[in-house]
Amino acid sequence: MKRKQKRALAEILISGAIFLVCEGLSLSGVLPAPTDGYDWVTLCVFLVPYFCIGWRVLAKAARNIAHGQVFDENFLMALATVGALCIGEYPEAVFVMLFYRVGEWFEDLAVGRSRASIAALMQIRPDSANLERDGAVVEVSPEEVAVGDIIQVRPGEKIPLDGVILEGATTLDTVALTGESVPRDAEVGDTVISGCVNQSGLIRVQVSKVFGESTVSKILSLVENAGERKSRSEHFITRFAKYYTPSVVIAAVLLAVLPPLIIGPSDFSVWSTWIYRAMSFLVVSCPCALVISVPLSFFGGIGGASRQGILIKGSNYLEALAACDTVVFDKTGTLTEGRFAVSEILPSGDVSPDDLLRYAAGAEAYSSHPIARALREAVAKPLEEGELHPATVEEIAGHGVRATVGTVAGSSPSCLPSRQVLCGNRRLMESAGVAYAPCDRPGTVVYVALDGVYAGCLVVADRIKADAAGAMEALRACGVTRTVMLTGDGEAVAGEVARQLGISEYRAGLLPGDKVDCLESILNDSHRGRGSKVAFVGDGINDAPVLARADIGIAMGGMGSDAAIEAADVVLMDDKPSGIAKAVGIARRTLRIVRQNIVFALAVKAAVLILTALGVLGDAGMWVAVFADVGVAVLAILNAMRAMRVK
Amino acid sequence: MRKVFEMEDLDCANCAARMEEAIRKIDGVTYVNISFIAQRMTLEADDAVFDAIAKKAAKACARIDSDCRVILK
């Protein structure tokens, strides 16, 4: 609790106690009841707790009026309670003031709590860096470290700046950045991201980015500035509040003056009844419940999402995500890993699958082509030096490669016998006159011939991410009705991936420019339906124009990719597609909370205003009104705090 | 130039919205955003007159909510 809150609590308790004593005296008849609106003795007694609790409000109202700020809540409370005192409703005046302060106190507490928990979500800011300088290690602030400097990170410390490991190996805890609790291994040569926690070993890191440019700063500034892009609901509330308070005040004045003038201008009890109703109007007129709880919900939603490794750049995007019913995917790097791997080995004749793979890998041992790399990675035991013959390797551009692989028979039983290998596409087989069996599996087919005889083929394909299928199901479950996959790959591959994942539509063979056109047409379809939004998910590297064109651009794998963080509206820190459904879920939940608060607060206030004007509430009017104001505000804030809790 | 200022005792969200509006009307202010939750003000104005404008903005805030202080650093 802050000092200010402690002081407020003390004031509330003391005034409350005095108020109870006064009320007791008044009820037991010691103090005379006010007749015709006033009784000086009773008034003076009740003024004690009134000033005790209300002086701050009165003083602030006076100060703000002096500054030309008339319609603020302090003024409303001052006016309402002074009005109540004038018509002899002394306990009401004190109680309203008391309850108002209690409500404010709770409000302060709740807002403070949510501020603190949002700040806790973002506990990734490193405090210091251990810089190696002139042979010694000094502790400096991360801002002081320059690119190329070498820092040490001890176990248990946060990595303060992005860099590359020069020495040491460790496991990194990335949970604060990605929400992923499985630690990842890092060793010499690996890039490390600031904000991760070094778990096991001491590492020396060469810094590659200054603090302001490093991942942790980018994330922090992104989340802290998320409030700048306001959602429609927030704009609505601000506009609403601007007109709401003055109109209620005008209505209150009319209510206080008009009916008595018409009914009985000379009758005090008529005046006091209507003034009382007007005062209740004033008490209910503060729009606090809305102006605090709506931005708080959005902020909570954004904060909660960031803990899951989902960065949302503004509450407008949270709003758009909640209305999203179409998700367009880029294939490579988004749904698939963007790395080729051997998916099938189809030997022909009596060659074993393992041997087929080893011959192919041996032939491609010196190529940097991604397909060649995939073949080499698929081999369980690397080929030995004696099995490779670099001098014999002959690249045949656009076709494949010819090489001798294997050792001369007899040197070792576990080694491959020496063969001349032809490894490449159909054209290679045809030009070499090899009788091969065409294969139409999705992916890139690599045909292999040994000593001029067809030995089988290998299919190399981009692997679908492990959680992609689950992600599609989750999206469907949360109401995304249309999923489209865009890819530059051929029809066969695209169709196979779409079928495996259950994606409803796909467009294959697209050039980068075509993707924007495709998205345009999808946007047109979708916007015909009212208010529905289209999200595009890409890896943020070469699809920036598409990310920008979509209603919501979602970039995947933000860890370490600046381009993605800049271009997109939503960044998934890890590269798992399941984050999309999670983001939509969080957005829907947040919006639901916002709507609950708006409807609840407006409904309660409207009901109280109408009931008061009609006089249904009678003597309880002001008590109900004060609940409708502060009580509702506190409930709305408590509800808003739920947005932060993301499972 | 764009700078972020911390704000102390910003207790009323409605006030934050009104402060924003008041600061926006100050001559030379190109951008302003007050985050009630983060208790911070982002102010953008011409470099030459930035400090004077920041002072004016702080005054405007004090006028709307006398408890709230902008920490000018």
Describe the structure concisely for a colleague:
The complex is a heterodimer of chains A (647) and B (73). Chain A is an alpha+beta fold. Chain A is built from 21 helices and 22 strands.
Q: Any overview of this molecule?
A:
Among the domains of chain A are: 97 residues, Calcium-transporting ATPase, cytoplasmic transduction domain A (Distorted Sandwich), CATH 2.70.150.10; 128 residues, Calcium-transporting ATPase, cytoplasmic domain N. Helices cover 51% and strands 17% of the residues of chain A. Chain A contains 21 helices and 22 strands. In chain A, the strands form four sheets. Chain A has a seven-stranded mixed β-sheet, sandwiched between helices. In chain A, strands 2-1-3-9-4-7 form a six-stranded antiparallel β-sheet, with no helix packed on it. Chain A has a six-stranded antiparallel β-sheet with strand order 12-17-16-15-14-13. The two termini of chain A are 28 Å apart. The mean pLDDT of chain A is 83. By secondary structure, chain B is an alpha+beta fold. Chain B has a single domain, classed as Alpha-Beta Plaits. In chain B, 37% of the residues lie in helices and 32% in strands. Chain B has two helices and four strands. Chains A and B meet through α2, α4 and α9 of A and α1 and α2 of B.
